[in-house]
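Friendly challenge for the regulars: who can give me the structure tokens for this chain first? No prize, just bragging rights.
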Amino acid sequence: MRAVALIGGKGTRLRPITQTVPKSMVPLRNRPYVQYMVDTMKTAGLDGVVFSMGYLPEPIQQYFAEKDLNGFSLDYVVEDQPLGTAGGIKNAEGYLEEGPFVATNGDILTGIDLAEVIQAHLDSEALATVTLTSVDDPTAYGLVEVDHRLRVKRFVEKPSSDEIHTSLVNAGIYVLEREVLNMIPEGREVSIEREIFPQLQAMGKLGAFVSSAYWRDIGTPRSYLAASNDVLSGTVGKGDDFKDLSIDPSTKLSKDVSLLPPVSIAEGCEIEAGATIGGRTSLGKGCFVGEGAMVEGSILFEGAQIGEGTIVRNSIVGPGAVVHQNCVIRGCSVLGAACVVEEENVLDQGARVNSRVCLPKGVISF
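First reply, four minutes later:
Bragging rights claimed.
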């Protein structure tokens, strides 16, 4: 059995990071998210995956070109135009074998056991099985109501408080029979959630698998940071080699550097005297943290530079971004690739600086 992974979206909620980095390649503990997805598929015994791609496909292909996946097969299909979730699956039809297959959205970090989902589908008479998970705030999602046989009986889009009779939402992982492909029109954008699943529900052929396993949508800066925290702490994606303080041997640590785990520091980083790398932080390849600076609860992409005395807290700093001395970057702020923040700026409350933009000295202060 194979899978189709829908990773063609532009990741607009994560901009400016996704102006230069495809969403599926954002790092979690210095491994791209897409690697966690593939590991989950391999663990479930799948034979391979077809990546349904659109936006920035090259970095993903380049990453896997250098990997040995021990017989797990990879294929790529690239959309000429946006095709939606169902259209992206249809576009991969030529790479799928007979029988059922898995389809998954490309912005979900989860501990769901795919093998259990597949077995539940095979034991049912459904043409499709949708995985459901419970969330604390159902008003932010479309809800899915099921009957006693775990058949989907109703979809409720973005409900008001008086419409909430369940906390189950679509977890973005499906097992589909090949007959479902025949229901998807070719050559146009098609939503599997809005166009195909309602048809299957009306036929009584849409099953459900309810999971209580870890699940998080990583598509916003806040949820991406939370997912990074969970991976760093070993809550999800924990491999046999997991360490809560992971420092590449090539890292240059000056005296009096404070490291407060969980922390992941990739190769070629340099951290100067008196700096603090606080809990739930990852530093990508070749990052620099200046004297007396503090980086806490944050993600620094490859080549990010943090100046002397600067504080970065609960924020995301993109590839090659430079933050000069005595700045404060906090409150889920996001800096795009190769941007420059001159000294004495204070960014807060989700501020975003686009790629290659330069903020002059002291122009922003919250």
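The mean pLDDT is 90. Helices lie at 33-43, 58-65, 84-91, 114-123, 192-203, 221-232. Your move, everyone else.
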